[in-house]
Description:
- The structure holds two protein chains of two kinds.
- Chain A is mainly alpha-helical.
- Helix content of chain A is 75%, strand content 0%.
- Chain A has a domain at 65-236: MetI-like (MetI-like fold), CATH 1.10.3720.
- Chain B has two domains: 2-83, no CATH class; 105-333, Orthogonal Bundle (MetI-like fold).
- Chain B has helices at 2-18, 24-45, 49-83, 102-110, 112-143, 148-156, 163-174, 179-186, 190-195, 208-232, 237-244, 249-278, 281-286, 294-304, 308-333; strands spanning 85-86, 96-97.
- Classes of the chains: A mainly alpha, B mainly alpha.
Amino acid sequence: MSAPMSRFSRVGRWGINSVAVLGFVYLFAPILVIILFSFNDPAGKFNIRWTGFTLDNWADPFAEKQLTDALWVSLRIAFISTIISTVLGSLMAVALSRYKFKGQGGVNLFLVLPLTSPEVVIGASLATLFLNRGVDFGYATVIIAHVMFQISFVALTVRARIRGFDWGLEQAAMDLGASPIRAFWKITFPLILPGVLAASLLSFALSIDDFIITFFNAGSLVTFPLQIFGASRVTIPPQINVLATMILFISVGIMVLGAVFGNLRRKRQGETL
Amino acid sequence: MGLGVLLLLGTGVILLATEITSGILAYIVGVLMAVALVGYVASIVRGTPETRRSVAPYALLKPGMLWLSIFFLAPLWALFVMSLSSKESRFDFFPSFTWEWENYQEAFTRFRPQFVRSFTYAGIATVLTILIGFPIAYVIAFRGGKYRMVLLGLVVIPFFTSYLIRTLAWTTLMNDNGPVMNTLETLRLVTVFEWLQIVDNGRLLSTPAAVIGGLTYNFLPFMILPIYVSLEKIDTRLVDAAMDLYSSASGAFRKVVLPLAIPGIFAGSLLVFIPASGDFVNAQFLGGPNTTMIGNSIQDQYLKQLNYPVASAMSFVLMIIITVGVLVYSKFMGTEELA
């Protein structure tokens, strides 16, 4: 792979390499700040200037009750909205990649639309619908909003992962006497599962981190990002950094585990085939 | 499909059990479960594989399509109606539909600076993400070797921390005594940056540069990943062929690599420009009173002033400008493909 590209001039190579290295520095600078400042001992209410090292914040990561409550709210919302959107989105992905039917192009376009609309517009329009109908803002409205944008992500991710999947296998199982349900559980389900899992992790992350759409539809409910936004003018406690660092390491852990298991699986399949 | 029904049922149970539904959500999930169930049963029970084949895709699509229709399309219509509404008397709490085109006039005239600023900032941020993202994607795709996946992971990792916290971290980096300003001072570059209008009165925060920097940072991966995908597909023998035919290195880059990367750059530009132009977090945290973007104004009009009609008109204008822009851009880039 790299051999032909090495024929490009040395100056060009140096240039592009150093821009890439600087790019990675740029990507990670704020992350280092977040981790570093979780060990800061801030003088005032704002944890934005380095004043001294302490482990106190890590000893009591849940000291800020409002922040912890908000994180809990976000996790509940993410859990429920992810289940709903994974089911609805995966069904759509299966329909789109398995069958040829009238209106397929229209469905594809329809799925992309929510992703190409600015979040303020989506947030404001949903809020208008809820206002018109006199729906009380709270858990339900936020979950509805999250599922709405997650469906597209799930459907597109799963569709990309199961493209080229051989649906004849399911038919083969049924020809050999398996019932449709059994064929699904034994053949189709295990094969689409990795894609579905990846999509559900993605939509979980999207839900936890969503700010703009949630801001319009939460009413008095306070999610983790809303709490940070609301409090940021009054106080920025170091626990924000501690929780953010924890979330970061947990997510990276899940990602690494996923990659390792994926590799093992591939190796095992390679041996049996 | 059996899985779908099972999980939908499970979801219904969870929802009822956690008691956090105000009726409407449980109702909707109930209806969707029924639709999925009916479609599912119909698709297996109704005899031949052929009829199953023709019914099944619609049965599978129905719940998701219903959700998107009710909570994406219908709201857009509600927003449009609201953008033409007004309060008939001062005592009305809620506006009613009156063909109030003045809302659009107000959106255009009163908030013109915010519109102009949003599209300028988002445009500059998009160009910057291409300039920074392309080399990163290029190096990962062609120099990454067996570390390609690890490097791609590194691109994504920063985005496992919350968007707001990431943006707040930039206030630490860019405040008046922060590392960035200190570096500029030690290198005696402050005057140069003031001349470049990046630093204003010895401050980096609250400047357009700070907001654009934040936007660039936050949406950078959305540029890197699509460009990487398009670069990864390039058959490097094409470059060899070009060089064997006496193309210069830069010629091969311009005539072979760049054209093949265009779909990635196009997709990346949309993924960066659209959210950036509607964003208000960066302007809120990193900007000042003179850097407010249209997202800030919409949010302010909608949630603080409760001026729903004008906020709706502004949202609609934003949406229409973006849609027209996307169409023009796709003509210009010569690609019709979105996803």
